[in-house]
Write a sequence for this structure.
């Protein structure tokens, strides 16, 4: 027993050191919960914010604060993942627009974010919903939506689906944050940032739209940092062809989730019952991924099933579906993508223009944008 205690006390300073560094640097601002509040204060004053490290904030918490502090309600909102984060109001042809997309989005995120508007009795006229194939995967392993747990539960009740315990979701979310803070992975991130940059990156307001650093705009959209925008050659090839990127949230996906299909269907019906126009947006995949892993490899043929379901749902509910996962439909090449899944701004506008050309009565009026 004494031997054990001696070893225990000898090792004690190491975990304490690890924990102290993680708390001091806190690269994802798990401890500093006012980080997002400062960003939002600039956004609601009509400023863009640059100098935000890409993974340095909880973008679900930012959405909660952003919507609660908005001075004017938008007529058009976008619910989506990082695939449409760069979609701006100017690109859709209206100044009354907010992009509420979040990284690693799930259907729970869409319900929770819309509930933030609905609970304020905000009258939204049009919702553009980005529909990736992973949204119908029961095993997508995304839990970041739990920041919006109470709002998700409220919207599930409104659309007539089991909502679960709000308290349980909130507790689970807080426990996940604590687990991350104590993890060795988080310590490594903290140590790397401490040695290379020092503690928390300092963001700042700007009137400039495109900057050398990652920038969040006052309409919720973003522009990537210059390094990501200028990816080419081997660096870009690695981003496009890396297995982790290709199979993101698509592993263990034997069939389309019955629960998620019902959730999306009843959410759309709820929006329409409240006189909200709905537009489905299907973001094209990079030709390398679509041709080599969706068409040729049977383990990702589920992507085609997901697209068929979205189109069938659109047809049965009268929802306009724009885009499609097949990049050849728009003659997209490598140069139209930042990486394997993220279209450049000009490509997104071309997809939206196809909706207008189809005569679907879309409320959006996309404008051509020069490639950033």
């Amino acid at each position: 027993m004494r031997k054990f205690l001696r070893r225990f006390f000898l090792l004690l300073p190491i975990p304490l050191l690890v924990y102290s560094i993680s708390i001091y640097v806190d690269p994802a601002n798990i401890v500093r919960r006012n980080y997002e509040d400062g960003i939002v204060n600039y956004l609601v004053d009509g400023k863009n914010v640059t100098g935000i490290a890409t993974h340095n904030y909880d973008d679900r918490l930012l959405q909660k604060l952003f919507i609660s502090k908005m001075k004017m309600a938008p007529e058009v909102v976008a619910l989506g993942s990082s695939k449409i984060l760069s979609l701006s109001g100017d690109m859709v042809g209206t100044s009354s627009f907010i992009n509420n997309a979040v990284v690693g989005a799930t259907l729970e995120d869409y319900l929770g974010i819309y509930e933030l508007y609905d609970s304020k009795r905000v009258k939204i006229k049009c919702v553009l919903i980005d529909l990736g194939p992973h949204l119908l995967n029961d095993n997508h392993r995304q839990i970041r939506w739990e920041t919006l747990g109470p709002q998700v539960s409220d919207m599930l009740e409104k659309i007539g689906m089991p909502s679960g315990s709000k308290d349980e979701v909130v507790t689970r979310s807080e426990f996940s944050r604590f687990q991350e803070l104590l993890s060795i992975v988080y310590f490594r991130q903290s140590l790397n940032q401490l040695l290379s940059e020092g503690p928390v990156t300092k963001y700042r307001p700007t009137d400039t739209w495109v900057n050398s650093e990652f920038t969040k705009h006052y309409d919720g959209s973003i522009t990537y940092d210059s390094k990501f925008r200028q990816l080419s050659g081997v660096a870009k090839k690695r981003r496009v062809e890396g297995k982790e990127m290709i199979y993101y949230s698509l592993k263990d996906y034997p069939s389309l989730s019955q629960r998620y299909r019902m959730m999306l269907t009843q959410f759309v019906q709820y929006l329409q019952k409240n006189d909200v126009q709905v537009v489905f947006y299907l973001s094209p995949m990079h030709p390398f991924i679509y041709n080599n892993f969706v068409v040729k490899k049977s383990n990702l043929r589920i992507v085609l099933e997901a697209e068929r379901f979205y189109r069938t749902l659109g047809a049965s509910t009268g929802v306009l579906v724009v885009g499609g996962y097949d990049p050849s439909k728009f003659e997209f090449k490598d140069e139209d993508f930042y990486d394997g899944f993220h279209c450049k701004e000009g490509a997104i506008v071309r997809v939206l223009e196809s909706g207008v050309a189809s005569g679907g009565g879309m409320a959006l009026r996309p404008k051509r944008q020069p490639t950033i």
Remarks:
- Strands lie at 48-50, 76-79, 97-99, 126-130, 204-206, 215-216, 222-223, 277-282, 320-323.
